[in-house]
Amino acid sequence: VCLEHQVKYGEHVGIIGSAKELGAWKQHVELDWTQDGWVCQLELPSEALVEFKFVIVSKGGNDKTWEGGDNRAIQLPKGGTLDIACNWDKTEEPLGPSGTPKVDRAPKHVVPQTAGDVSAASSAPGTDSSSFGGQWQGSEAVFMRSNEHGNKSSDRMWDTAGLGGMALKLVEGDKSSKNWWQKLDLVRRLVSEPVDDQSRLEALICSAIYLKWIYTGQISCSEDGGHYRPNKHAEISRQIFRELEKMYYTKGISPEDVLVIRKIHPCLPSFKSEFTATVPLTRIRDIAHRNDIPHELKQEIKHTIQNKLHRSAGPEDLVATEAMLTRITKNPGEYNGAFVEQFQIFYSELKDFFNAGR
Q1: Do 156 and 256 fall within a single domain?
Q2: pLDDT tens digits, residue range 255-273?
Q3: Domain assignment of residue 37, given as a range
């Protein structure tokens, strides 16, 4: 369930309804804030008729503001998964006889078509993709059997005409920030600089837009010849988070600042302990050295995902992993079940690292 609605600082959104999973009209279920809106996942009885409404809960939790109109109602199907997107106070908006069927948000997956070091690309059916995978606007994934990752930023242009303040600093800084960790560090520097309310909000807005464009591939990341494991990205993310927390608890912070801070959080990599470890995300290394998969596939996993991820991680690595997962699960039984299971586990770990698990 997703609700697109703006609330005031300190407020949050809940859902309440007739089913016990929705509080039986007594206690609301809290929704989580994401860049797409207020969301929650629920398991409800199949074929049940469920009525519900959204509520805005005050900072102290004592007051609730209910949306107007009649109760929303949905007849659940016999089984399956539904995505329901709603708008505040529009309780009569159609949900369809069984809600809105879930839309597959898979990115442009590719499968190898020719032999050689680099496989040609074509579309392939997708599996459930990450939250930013469905919005991906960058290059398609290409499976490689040798290190052919090139510098993709050589023809990029930076137009600074008419820019000033934080926007100019961001564009100028991006010129020398080729890879993902450098771009993250640029954001860290940007949010560490503000000295007044106006520059703080400007820095937050520029950072939120910049990170979103990176996560959707509109701003691509490329390698600079360096070698940095994902723990570097996680540590920079931790530093950015600390700066944002300082802002969040600054006396007199505006609701606009808080809103933009919430937009930034989903675009930062996770800094859980497993990702700040000296050698994180090692499962893919074990997968690439299995003896129960073809040599060509091992090479593609090694060069397309493993080496690239451990040398210069970027959002494009999750897109490539999704593409590979689509390929190895396309024909059930084609590859060893234990291998597929381990790859699926790795995919979940990688989504967690990219903060893309929703």
Answers
A1: yes
A2: 999 999 999 999 999 999 9
A3: 2-87
